[in-house]
Amino acid sequence: MRAQFSPSSSKPDAGFNKASSLQPPTPEAAAHSRALEAALRREIEGAGGWIGLDRYLDLVLHAPGLGYYAAGAAKFGLWAEDGSDFVTAPELSPFFARTLARQLAEVLDGDLSRVLEFGAGSGKLAAGLLLELDRLGAPLAQYAILELSGELRARQQARLVEAFAQAGKPELIGRLAWLDALPENFRGVMLGNEVLDAMPVRLFARQSGVWVERGVGWEEGAVAGAAGRLVWRDRPVFLPAAGPLPAVLEQVPGYHDYLAEVHEAGQGFMRSLARSLARGLILQFDYGFPQHEYYHPQRTGGTLMGHYRHQSHGDPFLYPGMSDLTAHVNFTAMAEAADEAGLDVLGYTSQANFLLNAGLPALLAELDLADAVRYLPQVNGAHKLVSEAEMGELFKVLALGKGLEGERPRLPLTGFARGDRTHML
Questions:
Q1: Which terminus of the chain has a smaller tally of CB atoms within 10 A, N or C?
Q2: Do residues 342 and 273 touch, judged by C-beta distance below 8 A?
Q3: How many angstroms separate the CA atoms of 32 and 145, rounded?
Q4: 20, 22, 63: which is closest to 320 by C-alpha?
Q5: DSSP one-letter code for 109
Q6: Helices 264-276 and 331-340: crossing angle, nearest 10°?
Q7: Of 305, 196, 215, 211, nearest to 252 (Cα)?
Q8: Could you give the C-alpha distances from 94 to 97, 100, 101, 252, 266, in angstroms and in order?
Q9: Residue 29 confidence (pLDDT)
Q10: What is the rounded distance in angstroms from the CA atom of residue 58 to the CA atom of residue 61?
């Protein structure tokens, strides 16, 4: 199964390559991409000719000054014309933040008066949540953002100042803080929207019944003076440096050719959150599947994909540093890592179920039907959030917690009151 979205909607489509139809980068962007490619070549050569896909993704997305999220190009937006590559739910509709705020308002109270967002993107979600939580009278003492990209941090700060000024709430900027690392003994709500899909993954291939780890190498030009290129390069999993085959792949039945990612970095992140959280709630929004679907025998092509100018493509070596690279999330692996680290799994459902449960219909009912110029675009944006053909089904919500039993937060959480799929993890 592959989920396809319109060019102006959020990330997925995977498993195909549109490279021939993508607009070429500007000369400046192409030079930037070549500089990153040169750095990748040096890394590969220094490692003996092979690096894992996880290391490649770490560099191509986060290398200081060169990686996709560390450089200055636009990432989030509605259209390719604005220089962006994809749109997220908060960019698509303000009703995402407004509905999510209703769920947060049920939890924020007393010592649970802080929100921590990971990788806040353009700052759109933070702006919407702060304004709606203020309207609801929720006791929010601080909204912290953990952002490793200095360039994105600057954009977030500028956007939030502007958003609060336009809303007549400039004082809300005083509730904001930016962090460089996870805090200790955090109490409150932790949020991640499309964070897990951007974490590095390892890639494995089964060929004629034999497993290999697929990594990245460098191939010189065929003739003198010809440009070299990044290429796939495999190594047997039984090599001492490679380690054993991940246990989850040993369970994939059959001997047919098969390609799949393993999410060790994401699992490590969940364990880090467990250590950081003293008491509170964690909500992760992302696209992906439970493990039995993720590693279904018929899902043979993996989920790694690129996003460039609102088109998806299947070439991770296309325009390094200019193209976002992601993989779908194995939510079972995330939940198991969290559970083993001491967190409680409080809910798992589709984005559509969560938003409908948490109050989206009531917010839409407040719109003025007579004002068609405003009504239709707002309803259309909200529809994309919950439609099975858009974001509603492929995107999931995982809720985790610690120390919430018997306290003010209502369990089960309203967002999971109907359609909870925890039993499917």
A1: N
A2: no
A3: 28
A4: 63
A5: B
A6: 40
A7: 211
A8: 6, 10, 11, 41, 28
A9: 82
A10: 6
